[in-house]
Amino acid sequence: MGDKPISYKDKDGNFVSAADVWNAEKLEELFNKLNPNRKFRLEREKMKQEKQG
User: What is residue 37's predicted lDDT score, i.e. its pLDDT?
Assistant: First the structure.
């Protein structure tokens, strides 16, 4: 596993890396839950880029 911190258990009780548990989709969901305005800001920035490009 390299130097990844082991801090979670999977459904079978085996230890797994935190990096394996927190993938990009789960992090995005967590960030949007903790900061609801973030989702709206990202949408505005995306629309602005589409208009420019």
Answer: 92
Position 5 scores a pLDDT of 61
Listed as ranges, residues in the chain with pLDDT below 70 are 1-6
Strand partners, 29: none
What Å distances lie between residue 27 and 1, 10, 32, 49, 51, CA to CA?
A: 21, 18, 9, 23, 28
CA distance 14 to 39: 34
- Residue spans of the domains in the chain: they are 6-52
Task: Give the Å distances, CA to CA, from 10 to 17, 25, 43.
Answer: 10, 18, 34
CA-wise closest residue to 28 among 40, 18, 38: 38
- Give the total residue count for the chain: 53
